[in-house]
Amino acid sequence: MDVILSVEAIGAVVGAVLLALFVLGLRRRLIQRAGGTFDCSLRVAPPEDTEPTGKGWVYGVARYNGDRVEWFRVFSYAFRPRRVLERPSIEVEGRREPRGTEELALLSDAVVLTCEHRGMRLELAMSDDALTGFLAWLEAAPPGQRVNVA
What we know:
This protein is of the alpha+beta class and 150 residues long. The chain has three helices and eight strands, in the order H-E-E-E-E-E-E-H-E-E-H.
């Protein structure tokens, strides 16, 4: 009797884990359905005088939506973006390669872009191809819109 209960409990736990993974995958598909998405890790930038570490990076998916980039955490069930970056408010301060333990925290081909958005310094890590697209999107602002691209 106890063995049957434990087998049922293990089956229920495995079923719950599989259901949770399915829902995460379905959420990502729904986010990507509209197109214009790219893998993008994000963190609030540490002070400029500190050596970068792998701490604080959160893996996510970013989606272009008009004059905004919506950023979603990958390991979340929320259908709303965690951050929304408006094109006129983004100022690119620079780009660099991951250093030290950042190389372990980010995808292998990541480039780190330091930006300021509404007074907050952020770092975005994305592939070279995604970076090219992001910078092109920034430069494609309508005439008269102030955009600062490093």
